[in-house]
Amino acid sequence: MKRIKAKGIPVIVYEPTMTESTFYGSKVIKDLKEFKNYAEIIIANRYDKMLSDVNEKVYTRDILGRD
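Above: the chain's sequence. Below: its structure in token form.
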């Protein structure tokens, strides 16, 4: 996240359980539909089926969908 922000790229975070509105200076979005519409690229630690409708936006190391 630091490296991306250092390049001047705005970062948003999807986390429905967070009570804070920011995370290390980045906006927190709690609604998945809003997050998917707003995000141009989604970087995920693990791939989840709930991202299947925006698969073209998702970048992850979890290439086999099992990590």
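The chain has a mean pLDDT of 91.
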